[in-house]
Automatic annotation (TrEMBL):
UniProt keyword annotation of Endoplasmic reticulum present: yes
Protein's name according to its UniProt entry: unspecific monooxygenase
One GO-annotated biological process of the protein: epoxygenase P450 pathway
One Pfam family hit: p450
Superkingdom as given in the UniProt entry: Eukaryota
Alphabetically ordered keywords of this record: Endoplasmic reticulum, Heme, Iron, Membrane, Metal-binding, Microsome, Monooxygenase, Oxidoreductase, Signal
Residues reported to bind heme: C441
Species this chain originates from: Engystomops pustulosus
Amino acid sequence: MEIIGASTLLLIVCIVFIVLSITQAQKGKSKGKLPPGPTPLPILGNLLQLNGKEVHKSLIKLSEKYGPVYTLHMGMDPVVVLCSYDAVKEALIDNAEVFSGRGYMPFMDKFNSGGHGLVGSNGERWKQLRRFSLMTLRNFGMGKRSIEQRIQEEAQFLVEEFQKSKGQQLDPTFYLSKAVSNVICSVVFGKRFKYEDKEFLTLLDLLHKIFIGFSSAWGQIYNIYPNVMQKIPGPHHKLFAAGEVIKEFISKRVKMHRETLDPNDPRDFIDCFIMRMQQEKDISTTEFHEEAMVNTIFDLFGAGTETVSSTLRYGMLILLKHPDVEERIHQEIDKVIGRDRAPCIEDRSHMPYTDAAIHEIQRFIDIVPLGVPHKVTQDLTFRDYFIPKGTTVYTVLSSVLRDPKQFKCPDQFNPGHFLDDKGKFRRNDGYMPFSSGKRICAGEGLARMELFLFLTTILQNFTLRSPVDREEIDLTPSMSGFGNLPPNYELAFIPR
């Protein structure tokens, strides 16, 4: 009986395998001539051809065989992959509207209630939320302190914290997270939090774990098999619970704002959103409601904390590895800013080497190597291939940031990639750490301002020192999935 049972099971597996193969093949045919790509296996798709620890490198490797535009199957679902600056530019810039959809990403959808936030939404909902968010961030303050002033203030608080270390080595992770997060908190919640605030520290810890979760194997598998993963135990459930804790905090803040709102004197993003909700309360199709507000704030709070703080942390590790670059930044700071005033954003145009070094840090660390998935909003013929409406598209930003046609030494850290022969700052079209086109990061302007002001303020006051020889410093990411996470390290801040 055991032999018969095993044989029957094997027969069933073979039949299912054949049926799924036929179904998958028919899916491909019914959608027209998709770009070529590796042959997928039933259920698994092309997963076995991807290195889970370095997915972006696997995708770039496949492009060497199948070209800069090819089809990959993530499980049963076809995904069009774009590798190289030319392919990504043609999609996101030349066909910006068609590629403006947000691609299928179940792990992210789980956090923003199925597409009710700024990052994961689509169509008219996305257009309205993005337009409102950009306008509010741009015009924030209504005559009060500018965002630049808030960053300058927070940078000084950070300097004071580093001064307390008295030159002893420390892990900069949460120092930077607290400072960067306080900037977006002041914009969204109308206040900054003290660095020892326990609730604030808990939120930052949860955000950090969620960001790591996005890049983990669990997060990647969840994106491919969400229905299965939802039913089995694993650390992903703790991450979703962490997201709910953060949303509860946001909801509590919204309630406090409602009780103290003055329509004639909006204090922050929450006040502005509440006022917009009141204006559209009688419109049944409005996109401005409680769920949209909480999810949009969650997106701004999360993205405005982790990506910038991780970039700064990675950037300082690079400077420890390249002290000559740090020294040239010191010289430029002393020449342009001096020691008697705080750096301001106007200084950036007079500091070409520092500006180039920051751009190169962003290019080299490649913080979100796969970008956030897009999808096409209508049927499209792209480079003689047919891409059906709704198809998910991976724009591999890593292939842009390390495109040899755009950067002379793509695998080396070299600020010269953004300098001309006269030492002046030179733009490079391959600079796309924030993506490009309609879906370019809504917080790009704020992030770039933060990177410049935080880094120059730190280096105005300190020299960075590593407890290990610079030859031993390894710049390899500690984890590489959705994000390239910097390795853990310690350093000392030596007063200048």
